[in-house]
Amino acid sequence: MKSKTSLLLVLLLVASSIAPLLLAQPPLQGPWIDEVAFAKEADPAKVMDMIAKGDAQVYFSDVRVDAAIAERLKRDPNIKYKYSFGLYFELTFNPVGPEFPKTGELNPFSSARVREAMNYIVDRNYIVDEIMLGFSIPKLLPLISQFPEYARLAEVAKLLEAQYSYNFEKGKEIIFEEMAKMGAEYKEGKWYYKGKPVVIKFLIRPEDQRRQIGDYVADQLEKLGFTVERMYKTAREASPIWYRGNPADGQWHIYTGGWITTAVSRDDSDNFGFFYTPLGLPSPLWQAYKPDPVFMDIATRLWNRDFKTIEERQELMAKAAVLALKDSVRVWLVDQISPWIYSKDVELAADLSGGFGAAISLRTLKYVGKAGGAIKAYMREVLVEPWNPVAGTNWLYDWILIRATLGSAFLINPYTGLPMPERAVSAEVYALKGLPTVSSSDWCKLTFVDKVEVPADAWYGYDVKAGRVVTAGEAGVKEAKIKVVVNYGDVIGKIKYHDGTTISLADWLIGWPLRFARVDRESPLFDEAALPAFKAWREAFVAWKIVSTSPLVIEYYVNDVYLDAELIVASYAGWPNFPWHALAIGIKAEEKGLLAFSSSKADKMKVEWMNYIGGPSLDILAKMLDESIAEGYIPFKEFMGKYVTADEAKARYQALKSWYAERKHFWVGDGPFYLDKADFTAHIAVLKANRNYPDKSDRWDWLAEPPIPEAAIEPPENVVPGLDAMFTIKLSYKGRPYPNARIDFVRFLVMDAAGNVLAKGDARPTAEGTWQAKLTPEDTGKLTPGSYRFMVIALSKDVAVPASKEAPFVVIPQVAYFQTMVAGIRSLLESRIAGVESGVGELRSKVSDLASTAASLQSTVNTLMAIAVVSLIIALVAVLLALRKPKTATETIVKQ
Fold first, then answer.
1. Name one GO molecular function term (predicted).
2. Within a domain: residue 584?
3. What is the pTM of this model?
4. Is residue 17 predicted with pLDDT exceeding 50?
5. What's phi and psi for 61, nearest 5 deg?
6. Strand, coil or helix: what is 444?
7. Selection from 111, 174, 159, 95 nearest residue 321 by Cα
């Protein structure tokens, strides 16, 4: 019995130790999920009900929050959500004045100081808490607070946010001063101009939270003494007034504006020119902007990227931020936080701007602790417009599905906006010295050179009529600003498309003649709508050259510059995610005038906009496929015939025919999912896992959550003018130290109560996750006794969201510090003296005890001595008695 019990305990111990390993699911080939079925549902409340019941797992549309939804998001444990930050609200002001020429009425907002003062009048925190219900962030600048540009400018942004924080009385004082200068009178609580009330015509959008925002701002204006006419207009009704109308007509003063950015932007240098100057748009409003000449010059330089170094750019951005607030033709209010909801039973990554609309979301979708399984997903719309590989739908709802079916050379990091290699392996960038670009990725090596020469045999163009490549040498092109060398690895003949065919060099090349044919007026593929994009591409792209095919290495020569070298690479490095033979049947259909790739050409030709997944296009494409099989059709045969034979073409077409027979559509990609079913009538679509996909399902698991660092500050015990002060900063993520190698920078600011920056600098790492910020004697020497704020701004290399933290600290006078030191020393001395006295007392006690012991011993000695004397006397007596003569034995007395 004992041995059986021991064996059972051993088995239980082993089982407990290996249980986590058994529960951890090994990665699959391709995505984690076997199937994702999409259906249409516009009401997020209904989707929340389905998610809570387990009837749905993900909603691939952002949720527009009302009070009921906000409450449920907080309370329902079955529903989780992630955020995106791409939508933002502002107040747009009419700058014409001081009087409107057409009406003669006063426009208070023609004054830049009045517009600037509106930053104090609006309580952004109130809008965040009471109107947006916490689903937004206060916004002061035309930079999204969760994006890299804001992080780079965080030092300036935080300072300005402190300086322009809500202060109604300060704003009122400025506005009253300016109104008086413009000739207005304030009496009985109202402003008058030339005897008439000053009426503010306020265009308020009623479709979303801007209605409540508009009402709040109108209330604030009425507190200032203005008469406000609240003009509730939808987008369609308001646009002819504020956007297309002449602002000099005086039809409006303020408009509740809204804007959206659909991806994490890493370069917003043109935002100041767009939002504050005539550079932005040809609209009458933009052309009425008259910024300060210094601001206009800075905005123009940023617009044209007229700077030589990144440091110079940052200096211009900082100046522009300050001047933008002085101008304030727009007063920014909030960056909206848009929830994207999903079940607690699943996990997936969300882009900080695009939410679940990013390519990475479906690539990371999985059940918690489970490999495989089916997902039920919903969107506001499903299958909106035709899909084709050249000029098809541009709807986000469609592209959520399309991106899942296509591989890519690079994916965009959902938290930083930087490209990440998916099919590409690495890249080298050679840029002319002085170009303002940097690389922060291991896969992208940046080298500055004196000259970038374009090889004479590099491909510059394509002669559509002759059917041949035009080289750079023939075009007389010899130099470029940048050379990009991309290594794609050993992919030719290795990567499979969904129909079972394998990638070849022909798949890489077909796009080259097609690009030029679509802008050649003599080609049956000519499309007027393709000209603008081609012109922009031609100005930036110089040439390309295939250096080797195993591994595949391609050189790209361009004249386009981005701050991030990675974006230069990703902008021009291609990937053939749609096979040439599937593209060919569409080319054949357009050449015959039966279908058109673009909606514009389809309208002009009175034919259907080509659709590879539904509608009448399918029959036409099927016919083109049969014809292609019969003739061994090779598009652009003079060129493409060098890379594919007629027999190879027929084999490809047969594979596509088998695919169509099974799937009932022609959409063939190489992505982690393939389109299994598409129904335009029912608005449903089903994606299934591509188990031939090169990547394992766990490749992007590290992106499931944005690793935003959390900051904590440990101020010193005392900060004294003229002495060093050391602040300790702890950076962590989920309770663990944040790796120092993944931190871009840790900066600190010391501010007074008014928000003035008195000291700043960069912290230095002292241990993993621990940084120290040192205030020098020169720094502390600027501080007078009182309360201050120590602010930390830390930016990770892995996420665009900066971590910021503030901690109060007190500066004490030098006298107080030295008094404290003296008091401390005195206390220490007193403590030590008390210790000595205590020791002396103990010694005295011990001496007393010793004396008592000695007295006791003395008594004992005296007693012993007395006994000894008595003993001695007895001994002497005994000796004397022993000396007397004794009797003999015969003299004994006998009785008769």
1. peptide transmembrane transporter activity
2. no
3. 0.74
4. no
5. -135, 150
6. strand
7. 159
